[in-house]
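Researcher: Let's run the pair from yesterday's discussion. Sequence first, then tokens, for each.
Model: Starting with the first of the pair.
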Amino acid sequence: MTRPQTIPADAEPTPAATDVTSFGIPTEVARLLVQEGIRVLRSIQFEALRAGALRDVNLLVCSPCGSGKTLVGELVILRHALAGRKAFLLVPLRALANEKYLRLQSRYRHFPITIAISTGDYAAEPKDLEKADVAVLTYERFDWLLRADPPWLGQIGAIVIDEVHNLGAMNRGPRLESAIVRLRQRLPSVQLVGLSGTIANPQELADWLGCQLVYSEERPVELRYRVLVAPDATQTIARLVRATIRRDGQVLVFATSRREAERLSLALANVVLPLLRPEERQALAEQGALAVVDGESPPIQERLAARLQYGVAFHHAGLDAVSRALVEEAFRRRLLKVICCTTTLEAGINTPARLVILMEPLFVRRSETGDTKFTYMDANRVHQILGRAGRPGQEALGFAILLAANAAEAERISDHYFVRVNGKAVARYDPVGSQLFVPQVLQEQVLVLAARAEGASLEEIRAFFEETHWWYQEHQHRPRQTLDQLLRIGSVDVDALLARQSGKPMTGADVTQTSSEAEDIIAGEQRVELTVLAPDKIEGRVQQRGWHTCAFTASGPVCSCQQLASSAELCSHLTILARSALHEAPQYAREIIPRSLKEDFILDYLERHGLVTQREGRFFATSFGRLVVRLYVRPATALWIRSRIPAITTTSSFIDSVVQALRFEGDSVLDAGVVRGLQRLVNSPEMSLAAVSRLEKAEIGDLESLLQTAIWLGGAVVSLARMAGFEEAAILGEPVVAAWQTRAAER
């Protein structure tokens, strides 16, 4: 990738230069902006256009929330679409994709362009985007699209990546990173524009992307930070809320959990109600009526409706999409005064407020030895949350407050998230780092390379990884040997492994102590269920803040939490499973676990399990490997599904297999009621989603979200069963997936 240059902001723009008719903005677009009252460009918009955003220059636009980056992306997209080229906007979340799509549809509805959205169903064909001029996609959907490589891909003129700092996210970052590399290799002439909040290493990220950096820390609305000591957080928040509403402001409170968000919203109801005007009370009563959609609404909708009439709401993933949208719109209309939320309002959703309060950005825990351990939220996430404060065009100031339990905690928070400049708190950011170098991720990416029609040689595999952000960051510190190996997992003795995990030495006499610990785990809050105990496999379910599926197999350790599993560091769930297995079946544990942690090359792994084959020095995906790539599941998940298929003999066992596959594939913690609801949606077609939610005491938002994922993974199980020759399992699963599709369409 070419090395970019930073675009300096060294010249004051003249009034003429900042006019929206400058820089080649299409006439019809400029006319629309003027009609909307946008006559003058903001600073970051001026700098981006001066840098060549409308001249096919690749840019990384990095600036605070609310500074105007969104319009830069829209201008790039519209320029290409109006010129007859496709332009895609990539976003991290489905909810954000829906909002962006609706905004584009509404704002540019009179333009001669077709706007589409594509966020799911990896079994579908990419033809749904063939006629679109503009499309909004999630990162994963775009990654899948590049793998499918439809013939019209060459028509793409621009890719705008919103929230591109998500490259550092553990779950979606690696797929976004690899998709960018494949985009550069497949379509090197496409204009790439990344939009990001402020980060610590913007130049490094721009260098890797091959973009010129347009950077600013200037906000259109000044943001003032404070860290408050609040021994009674509810009382402190009530006082801040009351003062803000009296000055006609609104408040977002980011709580630590769904339960806390709902509790706090209820506690604030009587604080807000006396401050509402009569006409606001009337309008909010109507909003409350809308929140209850029918006579069998789930309890969560009834709880929401009860709060709405007080001018307060909660917002989290347990709410269905319609209810979340209702809350967001009521807040934008300034009817709602306070939203108590989780991270569902963290990224992108347009709900600015005058005051943002973040509870507990610092988590304090006591270890078993009595030591204090401090865990901080990622600084970039914290400042993204705080950046929701300040409404451009309506507020003169935004206020961001972090709460601390005591003075010592407040000092730690201040030191971690801020620096002092001339006596003023200034945000401190974290660098964006690659999450690519994880065994399951590497297995998937090598398989994708081998699934190309021409396969891949070792040199081509090396060349791919040399273009990644991971290698860009690490190549000066790691020898080439590391890249050739891709990943090696060292062999260990299981007793020594468990000793290292617990941080204390172990001798042969200490096995009894380990067994005792396992008994304590089984008897206490951490429960273990050994589900498979075979000569080549130990599998189980571990309950530790939710259930996790773990396994030690010949192909390596795997856990649904997706943390790096290596000889030096296992996740806590695998450690608990190992201890339990050592207690219940030591002869299996001492044989299988060390073998599972042996040295292993990625290509050897893929070849040994029938995912790739080698011919004349090139690696080609087998029919099984190509199917895994098309289904968009990770190799380890596909192998687990294939091993599970013979046990699928009933509808219940099929649904259970899908749920277990979900735990392998993602990081979801599934409530038992949600899992039962998934089965009831098949067995009781006469019941609505709301009725199932009420009966199973499962949040409707969780059911709604799980349905989409279950359709995808259920289809994968059916396809893998058919390929493996288990036609009966496939026939059994097809009506289940069809039933889920029907229920999803009802929403």
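Model: Moving on to the second of the pair.
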Amino acid sequence: MTFDAADEVESLCYQFRLADWPRSRNRALINNLFNGVPPYPVDDNENVNVNFLEGTRLAHDARSQFYQAFLKPGNYFTATTDAAPVYRRQSYSTTVTKEVNRLMKKSLPYFECFRSKFALLVLHGIAPAGFNNSYTWCPEPFGCEDVYVPSNTKLTMHNLPFFAIYRQFTAPELIKLTQGKSVDPAWNQPLAKRCIEWIDRESAQLMGNNWYDTWTPEKAAERLKSDGGLYSGDQVPTINVWDFYFWNDDNKVAGWNRRMVLDSWSTPEAAGNGFHSMRRQGDIFSKKSGFLYNPGKRKWADKKEQIITWQFADLSAVAPFRYHSVRSLGFLMYNICHLQNRLRCRFSESVFESLLMYFRVKSGDDSQRALKVDLINRGFIDESLEFIKAQDRYQVRADLVALGLQQNETLISQNSSSYTTQPNQPSNPVEKTKFQVMSEVNAMTSLVSAALLQAYAYQNAEYYEVFRRFCKKDSPDPDVRTFQANCLRQRVPERLVFNPDMWTLEPERIMGAGNKTLEMAIAQQLMETRHLFDPEPQRMILKDYALAVTDDAARAEAYVPESPQKVTDSVHDAQLAAGTLMQGLPVAVKSGMNHIEYVETLMEGLQMIVQRGSQTGMATMEQIIGMNNMAQHIAQHIQLIAQDPNEKQRVKVYGDQLGKLMNEVKAFEQRLEEQMKVKAEQEGQAEDAATAAKIKASIITAEAKAANTRESHAQRTAQRQIQWQMEEDRKNRQFESEQQRENRLTGSELATETAFTRHDLKAEAAKTAQQLRHDRAAAGQDMVKTRLKTKAEVDAMKKKAAAAARAKPKKSE
């Protein structure tokens, strides 16, 4: 389909209007009833003609349900992503959700768009909303009468070949679209100019103003440009057009194309002048030039959601569900509400009739005397006049009238229970048990939730399109630019900010599905069992309770603000690893953790240990070994962080901080050596320089050997851990791709495999600890042997010196 002829498009749109005429009349009747219009025509001779607003109240209650369900939560939707590292996903999701919803919640036009859609959903079950261009994020609500869809179109819209939107342009709007610096070349400039001239001429005639500028085209053009507000008045005609969209897959790239033609049948001069005279003069509608807008083969949109979205609240009982067979709450309630209004009118007439005073008369003179009767405190009545007593008059059966009114109210209540809450009121109320109350609450919750479920599902399509426009790069929309700048400033990667396909949106759902009574019941039940939940869910329950009580998301946020950053797995692992590292034991490198949080937590712990040592001025050999072990472990994780080129500055800061701390550790080592030397001198066990150097060399060799052993063992353990993790990942991928393996593996086998793995890790850790203790013992023995050997050598040297000293006198003799 190409639709290259304007007459073809205009004829098709006119068929739309003819087919929609009966539906439009029904919609008008529904609108009148729920707007409070009396049930009888105004020219009917009815004594009581009043709309008792039962339908109006019903519509307001139903709209209130939608308000509570969609507008009460603090966010319209929650955005999550799985295209980021695991430890970053929560942070990115929180940032994007907060920034996009903050702008959407502040938008009054979007709030009014919701109000319009809720009203249309209640009355007609269909609520369309569309976009006027390709970049503005806020949709514009349309009336059901302005959107034309072919017959037999299903609610899924998968068989929708084309549709039309009826638009009305004022002169300033048309000038803005067709004139300026960057105007779409698809606009038919000559036709647009003639439309503006026609508005100018008609405005002058309708307002009774013979402008001199009418005969001066230059001044007329300047007036249109500078005084456009004058052309937005009620008396100024508009340019009515059919905005026609159709699916075109004839080209290599399939998509929705656009055409726009004038609705020449709705102009004030439809009798034969105006545009019809234009058609006769230039025959402009029979050619391609008859389009007001024609981009040709250029694709306008990839999906219909980029043009228009629909919200449905369909109560139809016949499937498959179709667009033109939607049955709304207003449609189903029209007859019973209209009947109730007529019944109440008749009942009111009967009440008025019962207040009248009737006389029985025999002649016209008697009736004249009856009219002259003045019933005051004291008065006289002619004996020819006779009052008609109550038992002689027609009696209305009050019980039958009350039964009819009650039955109608029951029908209205039962058929609107999915949208409104009207609990049953028994004639002999009995105090109900808690179980009975909860059963009724659950039943009402299921009804209301079922009615709003389809509303949430269809609303999600609009959320995705709005979010796609927020992620559009180089968008001229100021709100979009603000959102993108705020996200980038909070370090959300560009590939996530400008790629909406990496996000999943979930509408915010409120407890009780918008029903205040149900919401309070659920919140109260959660508060009673709040102590059974973990600390984090307890805070969420408290916030939900505050929202249920106040109906104010901002106040609930002020009462229960977001909790401080909870302890993550990375922080918790670092806190546990600090003690192990200070004991000189190895800690394996775990994959998939947040290395930044891990390093910062260990750095804080190392800094506290160094500060504690600085306060005392000394540190033991075990503490020094532990601090060196912790520094080596931190350096390994810093190297992993350095693999990300965006973290160069962070790695540099970490390196500087670690270097300063290790300078303090070296100072501890020097002071410890000096202390050991002084102690050795005090005990009289001073050794010569060569022996001391040898001992020191032995100590350094033993420490280096132990450190090398620990480092190599830690690396081997880390490699085995990473290999095991990679093997597990490979098994998981194979597990997902092979459905047969999923059937063979059972929970017990997985548990056994996990137990064996844990046992192997524990055995390896125990073996490593035993090896370290053995190495320490060997190093100590070597030191003892070295000291004994050195002492023996010193004793031998002393004996030799003594023998030499004793031998010297004999030589002299």
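Researcher: Give me one sentence on the second I can quote.
Model: Residues 569-780 form one domain.
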